[in-house]
Amino acid sequence: MSEAPLRSIKPYGVAISDAIVSGDLAKMKEAAAAAEQHLAEHGDVASVLNLLKVEIAKAEAGS
Q1: pLDDT, tens digit, 9 for 90 and up, residues 21-63
Q2: Is 2 contained in some domain?
Q3: Nearest to 25 by CA among 2, 43, 5
Q4: Range of 23's domain?
Q5: Which keywords does the record carry (predicted)?
């Protein structure tokens, strides 16, 4: 069982994937809680990133 505080895990794909691969229930719950906190604070970053990429492509096409 992990004793690391929730703040120690960054909710990025690697941390989540590592938690899944570990099979450690506490680590998986910790990663899920950190990811949920990140989404609550920052929203759906993946969707916003896709919009940003579209705008970058438009700007590059116009330059």
Answers
A1: 999 999 999 999 988 888 888 888 888 889 899 999 999 998 7
A2: no
A3: 2
A4: 12-62
A5: Plasmid
